Amino acid sequence: MSGALDCEHVRLAIGGDPRNLSGEVARHLEGCAACRKFRDETLVLEGRIQAALELPLHRFRPAKQPAPVRRFALAASVLVALLVGGGAWFFRPQTALAADVAEHVRHESGSWALQRRLSTEEVAAVLARAGVSFDSSMPVVYASPCVLRGHVAPHLVVHTEQGPLTVMLLPGEKLSRRQEFSEEGLEGVLLPAGEGSVAVLTQGGAVSPTTEAALISAVRWR
Description:
Elements: H1 7-16, H2 23-31, H3 33-53, H4 66-86, H5 96-107, H6 120-128, E1 132-134, E2 140-148, E3 151-160, E4 163-171, E5 179-183, E6 186-193, E7 196-202, H7 209-218, E8 219-221
Antiparallel strand pairs: 1-8, 2-3, 3-4, 4-7, 5-6, 6-7
Helix pairs in contact: 1-3, 2-3, 3-4
């Protein structure tokens, strides 16, 4: 890889080991507030997981009451599983998802203007990083394996009759209902999609129900 690292590669490096970062990553962080925030949140996640793993269960053991001990241990195990699966985001309200998505998309605003249709192989390589497939007839002009809320989330821009749409495939972000949102000039919708969700954003105007249905049907979690 040549030249300065972009945010996607920096965040993947942070996700791998936030405490041991290369000089290139450190230099990027000096000038990128968004990536510094991601690094800080990743460190918080790591600290919470470590704290949960080190819970002193013996201190909570009541004399001659083994059943409560087992229940406490089970509860601690569930907590650890939630921390590992959901990350620090377990402690944040679900409504924050829309704001996180919008902030990420604003950081990559140049992707809206791209025109070259990517090949099937180029798109598949990005999707494979997140363990998801996306079988859509809509032309994909941008695809990046971004990191959002502790998961690799493919960030796509597709061309439609109403113009370019940003589509983010969000593994692990299960939603109970469809949610519309508006964030500083971006209109969007969060759509439940099985074991994850799909965020669709526009720079003006609502996403048509037909387009929403087509996007949801194109997603397959592996």
